[in-house]
Structure formats: structure tokens, C-alpha cells
Design brief:
The chain has 83 residues and is mainly alpha-helical. It has two helices and no strands.
């Protein structure tokens, strides 16, 4: 189902799910940063492939969360403008 076809309640539910997933990935990458002192998380550094995969997955979930956030913002503004 596309974001535009979802109700605002459905969007809010998947937004919360995406936020929880993003928080979990942030904890994982923060753990790596604390353990190694590599606070850049840059692909040009010699990051182990499993950590790099985690970083890439994290970024894809943050992109999903951003799309949902943008749709929620549009809906909120649209709903308020009609009142």
C-alpha cells in the first residue's frame, strides 16, 4: 500500500515502527563508535563489512522514516487548512 493511500492512523503506526527500528540501528552503530572510537562512520575508513552493512541498512530505514514524516506533515497541514 502506498503512503498516500493510508489513513493518518496507519501512517502514524508505521511511523512509530520506523522510529523504533531507527533507534535500534542507532544503538548498534553507537555501540560500534564507542567500542572503536571511529565517530565518522565513513565508507573511506576501514570499517568491517558487517558494520558497513548495518550502517547502510540504518540509512535506508532513516530514508523510509523521512518519507513517512513528510507524508504526515503534508496531511497535518492539509487537515488544518480545511478547518
Amino acid at each position: 500500500m502506498k503512503l498516500k493511500e493510508m489513513t493518518i492512523e496507519e501512517l502514524f503506526t508505521i511511523y512509530n515502527i520506523a522510529c523504533d527500528i531507527c533507534k535500534e540501528y542507532s544503538r548498534m552503530t553507537d555501540g560500534y563508535v564507542l567500542a572503536t572510537g571511529d565517530n565518522i562512520l565513513d565508507q573511506t575508513h576501514n570499517i568491517p563489512s558487517d558494520i558497513q552493512n548495518t550502517i547502510n541498512e540504518r540509512q535506508s530505514y532513516f530514508a523510509i522514516k523521512d518519507k513517512i514524516t513528510n507524508e504526515l506533515k503534508k496531511r497535518l497541514i492539509s487537515d488544518i487548512e480545511y478547518e
